[in-house]
Structures are given as structure tokens and as C-alpha cells.
Specification:
616 residues; Leucine-rich repeat, LRR (right-handed beta-alpha superhelix); seven-stranded parallel beta sheet; single chain; alpha/beta
């Protein structure tokens, strides 16, 4: 249906509006210039549509406008003072997530007093937009990803006494944080990440709920106490924060996400401990704990027994030691992502880990784990489901994405649980797609024994790396059941035997490493030949033959692409062994006969002389 030049796909809606929490219409086209005829219009909400082109100057003639929402469209023009000069009654202005450039002079004095100013991804820089200083009534200010490369003005922190939501992230804003922000009594949401802010973490506003100040240049220790008792998300990664992790962190009653990754603390006890004294276990609501790259020492933190809602735990790239506890399945029943690579954990892999119903990502690589791989891997139900069935399993992380939005037109959502994982030999960050990340990494340990057949039941695996261990035996024949595998590394073990023909049926596989000690024919198949540098997948296997290696196979090719019930690799190997044994036995019979039978020996040499004489 077309209404005055605007294409509306859901014509049943009563107005041309959309709230920030979800679209009510699906409008495409341009805003017509005759919009200035709507002289009594007080509320224009066109968020979350497919509007494009320039924003007409005529929109600035709607002098009675109080709310103007044009965010989340495809506008691609400039916004000048002429667009806004007559909007004296304007209280809420949302232009975020378009391709807009704001060409407003720094000394311009707006005629309006905004309560909501949302300009995310609108290019306002490189200088700081000084005209916002006069917006003292603003409760939401978003100038994120605005191309600002400037120093934060001295007046900034005291200019907005009613500020509740602040987002200045993803710019290059510099400046030193004040020692305290407690005077900002209404603030609940601060996103300051990805800037060049310096100083120590200030005393936070009392009612702050979310703080993201990651990827800055903060230094010094964390404060001794914190008054923001309602914090749910505390994100401080990628700074230069030093010292210990204080006890009050574990006593924040509503804390759900704690990210202190990639700082520069001293070598210290792990979490919520000071010296050798262990903090009493306290029940918390934390669901994501990210502490990687911090030189943390000590054993696996016993305080986590009080975190029954923990979903994501990342302690990778630290100096943690000792054995992994057996209580994880009982005390952390919702644990889905466990990242412990590059530490000094030792001892066996606890069999109890396989009782974690939601565990779908386990990385214990680069530790000192010993013993065998547990033979009850099939109990890891989250790894035995493909992507389409993960939701049916009820991954706890999905619950955080399905939380109902609170009432309001423009809502700021913050934390996407993230995980840095090694996949296909690369360090990759998984954020919103982390719910589909299924992986098992046990490489660079001291594991022994065979690869359990149960591993072939983990059909949801996208990455499997058990390289650089001391595993022996054969590759499981049914490895081809892992149809979701994108990366497989079994190299640098003591595996023997042939490569199962079912391997060629892994159509998603893009990285394969089977280097060292295997033998027999390499299965044929389009997917195995399509690998990047396929020959490098088989280095150190001098007994392998067939493309892509140079050694030719003399025997018949084993059927590939599926498991053959009539002719297995072992039968072909037995055929070759039988032929070799027959040849050796026949030669030995001839030699023994010539050695002990004088008549036969004389006859043999006479026959040889006659043949040589006739040849001459």
C-alpha cells in the first residue's frame, strides 16, 4: 500500500510510527518535501524502517514537534542547523544508525532543550560537539561512533545533572576521568569503551547498573570500595589496571557480567582473595566471568562454588595451576563455555565435566593435563546437537537475549557475551553468534590412551583439536559422523593405521591436520581436495599414499565418502601383509633347498652355466 509516496507494507497499523523496542511499520522510500503541511504534528516516529535519501529541510518547519525519531533507517545526507533551527519545542531527537553527517558549528545555540539526544554513528567529529553543553535537561545522550578525535571538555561531567544513560563509545576521545562520579545521582548506564581516557577508575554513581569503560588507558588499582551496589555489568577489559581483585566484587548482589580481561595486574591470588586468605563463598548472580590475560595465579577459584548461574568462564592465558575441581557439574550446572587454555592446570580431566548438560565449548589446550580423554563424552548433550537443535536444548545464554525489554521508546542494550576462541588456527571473537559456537580443545597436554569412540557422537562440534598429546591407536572409523566440523586437528600424536574413509564426507571441513605416523591410502573426495594447502595436512606421514601426497598407491582404492561394511581398511592392510609374507616364505624355501640338497644345488649351477654359455 502506498500513502502519499511512502510504501507501507503493514497497512493495518494506525500510525506511521515505531518504538525503539520494535517496528510497527515497514516503510520504504523518501520523506516527501510536503511534510511541512503537517503543521500540528507533535510526534514523528519513523524508526526501524527502510527510508533513504536526504532528510528534507522542510522537516525543520514542523515547529510543534516534540519527538522526532528517524533512527535505524538508510538516510545518507547532512544535518545542518537549518534542519533544527525552528524546532523550539523539540524534546526527543533520535538520528542514530544512519549515514548522516552533522554539519553544525560549535558555537551554535540550539532553540530546544532535549531530554533524549541519540546520535549514534552520526558523524559529528573530528571536534567535540560543543553545542550539546546547553542541553542540561538531557537524560539520554548517545554520541557513540561519531568520528570524534578530541579532548573531553572540562565541563562535560557536570553539564548534565539529570543524565541517566551516556554512550560516548567508539571514538578517540581523550581526557582524564574525575576521581568521583558519585554526584551524577541519576546515572544508570555508562558506555565509554574504545576511547583514550586515562586516570583511575572513579567512584561510581550510586545507582549505576551498567559500566563499560573497556579499551581505554586506565591505570592504577581498583577502588577499595564501591557504592554502586546495583551493578549488573562491569566491563573493564583492555586497560592497564593493576593490583588485586578486591573482595567486594564477589559481594555485588546483582552482578551478572564481570570482564577484567587484558589488564596488567601483579601476579596474585585469583578471584576475591587477598594473600593466602580465602574469601567465604557467597551466592552471586554472575553469569559471565572473563579474566583472561591477567597473569593471575593460584588454583581454580573455590569462590565460584557460589555462582550457580555462571554460563561463561574465561580464565585463559594466566598462571593458574593445580587440578581442576570435580564440583563444577554440581555447583555450576548452567556452565556452557569453559575457556582455560594456556595455564598450568594439571592432573586428569575430571569425568564429572561430562555431566554439564549445557557445556558446548571446552578449551583446556596448553596446560599439563594427563590421563586419558573421558569415555563418557556422549553425556555432553549440548555438543551432541546440531545448530538447529541448540535452541530446543535450552542454552542458558539464549535466556539473556530473550529478556523482555523494559518499557520506553529508546532502550540501550549493552553486553553481548563474548569469547575469544582459537578456530582454524586463528584467534576469533564470538559475540552474538557465540550461542552457536561448539568446540572441544585439548591440544598441547600430556593425554594418553586412545581417542574414545564416544567423540563421534558430538555431532554439533565445529572445532576439534586434540593435537600435541601422546594419544595412540586409530582414528575412530565413524569420524565422518561429525558433519558440522569446520576444523579438525589430530596431529603430533602417536596415532597409527589408516585414515577412515568416512572423513571425506565432512562437507563443512576447511582446515585439517593429520600430520605424523599414519599410513595407507588418503581417502578421495571433493572436500578433502578443496582444503587450503591440502598437502600440508599430511606432513610426516611417509606411509600415506594417494593425492595430494606424491607417493602412489599400488593397491585398489578404498571406497570413500561413507563407512564400507564389506571392505574395511584393516582388510586391505591384511591383504598386503599376506602377499609380503608369502613372498618371504617362498624365497626362504628355495634358499634352504639349495643349501641342504647337494644334488639340487649341482643341477642349479649346471643350468646356470648352460644359460650363460648360450647367452654368449
Amino acid at each position: 500500500m502506498t500513502v502519499n509516496g511512502l510504501q507501507i507494507e503493514k497497512a493495518e497499523q494506525a500510525e506511521y510510527g515505531v518504538s525503539r523496542t520494535g517496528p510497527l511499520t515497514n516503510i520504504s522510500g523518501k520523506i516527501p518535501s510536503w511534510i511541512n503541511r503537517w503543521t500540528d504534528l507533535g510526534n514523528l516516529q519513523l524508526s526501524y524502517n527502510r527510508l533513504m535519501g536526504p532528510i528534507p529541510l522542510e522537516i525543520g518547519m514542523l515547529s510543534k514537534l516534540k519527538k522526532l525519531y528517524l533512527d535505524d533507517n538508510q538516510f545518507n545526507s547532512s544535518i545542518s542547523e537549518d534542519h533544527l533551527a525552528n524546532l523550539a519545542n523539540l524534546e526527543e531527537l533520535a538520528l542514530s544508525y544512519n549515514s548522516l553527517h552533522m554539519t553544525i558549528s560549535s558555537d551554535w545555540i540550539p532553540p530546544f532543550k532535549l531530554r533524549l539526544a541519540a546520535f549514534g554513528r552520526c558523524k559529528m567529529g573530528p571536534h567535540f560537539p560543543l553545542w550539546i553543553e546547553g542541553q542540561r535537561d538531557v537524560s539520554l545522550l548517545d554520541i557513540s561512533d561519531a568520528g570524534i578525535v578530541d579532548h573531553l571538555p572540562d565541563w562535560f561531567w557536570t553539564a548534565f545533572p539529570n543524565l541517566q544513560t551516556l554512550n560516548i563509545s567508539c571514538n578517540q576521545i581523550s581526557g582524564r576521568l574525575p576521581r568521583t562520579l558519585d554526584f551524577m545521582s541519576s546515572a544508570t548506564f555508562f558506555d565509554l569503551n574504545s576511547n583514550n581516557l586515562t586516570g583511575t577508575l572513579p567512584q561510581l554513581p550510586r545507582y549505576l547498573v551498567v559500566l563499560d569503560i573497556s579499551k581505554n588507558s586506565l591505570s592504577g588499582p581498583l577502588p577499595r570500595k564501591i557504592r554502586a551496589a546495583s551493578l549488573t555489568d562491569l566491563l573493564l577489559s583492555d586497560n592497564n589496571i593493576s593490583g588485586t581483585i578486591p573482595r567486594y566484587i564477589c559481594q555485588l548482589q546483582f552482578l551478572s557480567v564481570l570482564d577484567l580481561a587484558k589488564n596488567l595486574p601483579n601476579e596474585q591470588a585469583l578471584l576475591c582473595t587477598e594473600g593466602t586468605e580465602t574469601t567465604k563463598t557467597v551466592k552471586t548472580t554472575i553469569s559471565a566471568l572473563v579474566l583472561n590475560n591477567n597473569k593471575l595465579s593460584g588454583e581454580f577459584p573455590a569462590t565460584l562454588q557460589g555462582c550457580p548461574k555462571l554460563i561463561l568462564l574465561d580464565l585463559s592465558y594466566n598462571n593458574c595451576a593445580g587440578e581442576l575441581p570435580t564440583w563444577m557439574a554440581e555447583k555450576l550446572p548452567k556452565l556452557s563455555y569453559l575457556q582455560l587454555r594456556n595455564n598450568m592446570f594439571l592432573g586428569p580431566i575430571p569425568v564429572q565435566l561430562t555431566e554439564l548438560r549445557y557445556l558446548q565449548f571446552l578449551d583446556l589446550a596448553h596446560n599439563r593435563m594427563s590421563g586419558s580423554i573421558p569415555h563418557s563424552l556422549s553425556k555432553l548433550k549440548a555438543m551432541t546437537h546440531d545448530k538447529d537443535h541448540l535452541q530446543q536444548l535450552g542454552n542458558p545464554l539464549l535466556w539473556s537475549y530473550d529478556r523482555p525489554a523494559s518499557p520506553g521508546i529508546y532502550e540501550m542494550q549493552k553486553y553481548d557475551d563474548s569469547l575469544e576462541a582459537v578456530m582454524k588456527g586463528q584467534y576469533l571473537d564470538y559475540t552474538s553468534n557465540i550461542i552457536y559456537m561448539v568446540g572441544l580443545g585439548l591440544s598441547h597436554n600430556n593425554l594418553v590412551g586412545e581417542i574414545p569412540d564416544d567423540i563421534t557422537s558430538l555431532i554439533g562440534l565445529r572445532g576439534l583439536n586434540i593435537s600435541h598429546n601422546q594419544l595412540s591407536g586409530k582414528i575412530p572409523e565413524k569420524i565422518g559422523l561429525l558433519q558440522s566440523l569446520e576444523s579438525l586437528d589430530l596431529s603430533w600424536n602417536e596415532l597409527s593405521g589408516e585414515i577412515p574413509s568416512s572423513l571425506s564426507g565432512l562437507t563443512m571441513l576447511s582446515k585439517l591436520n593429520l600430520s605424523y605416523y599414519l599410513s595407507g591410502r588418503i581417502p578421495s573426495g571433493d572436500q578433502l581436495q578443496a582444503l587450503i594447502d591440502p598437502a600440508s595436512s599430511y606432513i610426516g606421514n611417509d606411509c600415506l599414499c594417494g593425492p595430494p601426497v606424491s607417493r602412489n598407491c599400488s593397491g585398489p582404492e578404498v571406497a570413500s565418502g561413507h563407512l564400507d561394511e564389506h571392505q574395511s581398511g584393516s582388510e586391505v592392510r591384511n591383504l598386503y601383509l599376506g602377499m609380503a609374507a608369502g613372498y618371504v616364505l617362498g624365497l626362504w624355501v628355495v634358499l634352504v633347498t639349495l643349501l641342504f640338497a647337494r644334488t639340487w644345488r649341482a643341477a642349479y649351477f649346471q643350468l646356470s652355466d648352460k644359460l650363460l654359455t648360450s647367452a654368449d
